[in-house]
Input
Amino acid sequence: MAELLVDGRKLTGFAWQEEVLARVDKLVPYNAEGEMKSRGALYEKAKIPFVSYAVADGRLITGQNPTSAKETAQKDAAAL
Output
C-alpha cells in the first residue's frame, strides 16, 4: 500500500470543535481533524478555538484556520 503524504507528519487544519462552534458541522462534508488522524497524521491544534496556529514539518506547512494565515505565511517565508 502506498504511504500517504500526511502519515507520520505533524500538521493542523480546521479543528472539529471550531466547525461545531461555528454551527457548520452539519454542512461540511467531513471532519478534517478526524480524517487526518485516521490517515496517520500527527494532528495538532490550538488550545483555544479560532486563534492563530500553524505547524511546520519540513516542507509541509499548514494553518489551522483563516486566523492563521499570517503565521502560516511567516513559516512559509522562513522555510524558503
User: Anything to note?
Assistant: The chain is about 30% helix and 15% strand. Residues 17 and 23 are 10 Å apart (CA to CA). The mean pLDDT is 95. Strands lie at 10-11, 42-43, 54-57, 60-63.
